[in-house]
C-alpha cells in the first residue's frame, strides 16, 4: 500500500470562539490547497508542523499509514530571504555530506560556488534554489510548500515553478502545496482543495476541478488566476 497521511481534523479557533480553520483531507500523492489571502493556508501548514501560536485554540488530529517522523517533514517557505541563518555559510546549513551537497545543488541548477557564500550574497531565486536543495538533502516523506514563488520576481517565479514541477515528478514523496496561484500547481498536484474562510469549498482531481468547477467561488478563483496571467503577458 502506498504512503498516505490522513488529516482527520484541523480545527483552529480564536479564544472568543470565532472559527479560523475547520478542515479534513487526505494526502495520498500530491495535494494543492488553493485559497485567497486569509483563507487559512498558513494556519493549516503551521498545524501540520506543530507551530501554531499559543493564543489559538486547536484540535489537530493527524494519522498516517506509515511511520512519519518529525524530521521527515520538509517545508519550502514563502520567503527565501528570511529562511536561512544569515551569519552561516550555505555549506554549513545542509544536513548531508559534501558530495551529496554538490549533487543536490546540480539538481536545482546551481554549482558548488554557492557553498562558500553567505545567504545575503545570493539573489532571491538563487536562495530559493538553495533552500529547496537543503530541504531535499533530508530523508523526506512529506514535503510542504508554502507559496514558494510569491516573494520572487516574474522570471524567477517561472523558473522555480518549472524546477518544482520537475523535482516533484521525480521524487516519490507526499506533497502538500498551498498557494493562491492555481497555475503553479498544474502538472505538480494530482488533487486540489479549494478553501475559503478556513473551510473546504470544493475538492477533487486537479484536472476535473479546473475543467469543470462546480462551485461559483471556484469558478471565480480560476477565472481571476488566468485573467491575471493574460494581463501580465
Ligand atoms: N495568531 C493569530 N491570531 C489571530 N488571528 C490569526 C492568527 N493567525 C492567523 N489569524 C487569522 O486567521 C486567518 C487565516 O490566516 P492564514 O495566515 O492562515 O491565511 P493565509 O491563507 O495563509 O493567507 P496569506 O495567503 O495572506 O498568507 C486570517 O483571518 C488571519 O487574520
Automatic annotation (TrEMBL):
GO MF term list: ATP binding; ATP hydrolysis activity
Coiled coil: none
Keywords, in A-Z order: ATP-binding, Cell membrane, Membrane, Nucleotide-binding, Transport
InterPro entries: AAA+_ATPase (IPR003593), ABC_Ni/Peptide_Import (IPR050388), ABC_transporter-like_ATP-bd (IPR003439), ABC_transporter-like_CS (IPR017871), P-loop_NTPase (IPR027417)
Magnesium listed as a keyword: no
ABC transporter domain: residues covered: 5-222
Subcellular compartments: Cell inner membrane
UniProt membrane topology term: Peripheral membrane protein
GO cellular component, one term: plasma membrane
Keyword ATP-binding in record: yes
Major location (coarse): membrane
Entries under Gene3D superfamilies matching the protein: P-loop containing nucleotide triphosphate hydrolases
SUPFAM superfamilies tied to this protein: P-loop containing nucleoside triphosphate hydrolases (SSF52540)
Family statement: Belongs to the ABC transporter superfamily.
Protein name: ABC transporter ATP-binding protein
Lineage: Bacteria, Pseudomonadati, Campylobacterota, Epsilonproteobacteria, Campylobacterales
Amino acid at each position: 500500500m502506498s504512503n498516505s497521511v490522513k488529516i482527520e481534523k484541523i480545527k483552529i479557533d480564536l479564544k472568543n470562539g470565532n472559527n479560523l480553520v475547520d478542515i479534513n483531507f487526505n494526502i495520498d500523492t500530491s495535494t494543492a490547497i488553493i485559497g485567497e489571502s486569509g483563507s487559512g493556508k498558513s494556519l493549516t501548514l503551521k498545524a501540520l508542523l506543530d507551530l501554531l501560536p499559543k493564543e489559538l485554540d486547536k484540535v489537530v488530529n493527524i494519522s498516517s499509514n506509515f511511520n512519519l517522523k518529525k524530521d521527515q517533514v520538509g517545508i519550502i517557505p514563502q520567503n527565501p530571504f528570511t529562511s536561512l541563518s544569515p551569519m552561516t555559510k550555505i555549506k554549513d546549513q545542509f544536513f548531508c555530506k559534501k558530495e551529496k551537497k554538490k549533487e543536490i545543488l546540480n539538481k536545482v541548477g546551481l554549482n558548488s560556488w554557492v557553498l562558500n557564500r553567505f545567504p545575503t550574497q545570493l539573489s532571491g531565486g538563487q536562495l530559493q534554489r538553495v533552500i529547496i536543495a537543503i530541504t531535499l538533502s533530508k530523508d523526506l516523506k512529506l514535503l510542504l510548500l508554502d507559496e514558494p514563488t510569491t516573494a520572487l520576481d516574474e522570471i524567477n517565479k517561472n523558473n522555480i515553478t518549472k524546477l518544482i514541477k520537475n523535482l516533484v515528478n521525480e521524487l516519490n514523496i507526499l506533497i502538500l502545496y498551498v498557494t493562491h496561484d492555481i497555475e503553479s500547481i498544474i502538472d505538480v498536484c494530482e488533487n486540489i482543495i479549494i478553501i475559503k474562510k478556513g473551510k473546504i469549498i470544493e475538492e477533487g482531481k486537479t484536472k476535473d476541478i479546473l475543467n469543470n468547477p462546480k462551485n461559483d467561488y471556484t469558478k471565480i478563483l480560476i477565472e481571476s488566476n488566468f485573467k491575471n496571467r493574460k494581463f501580465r503577458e
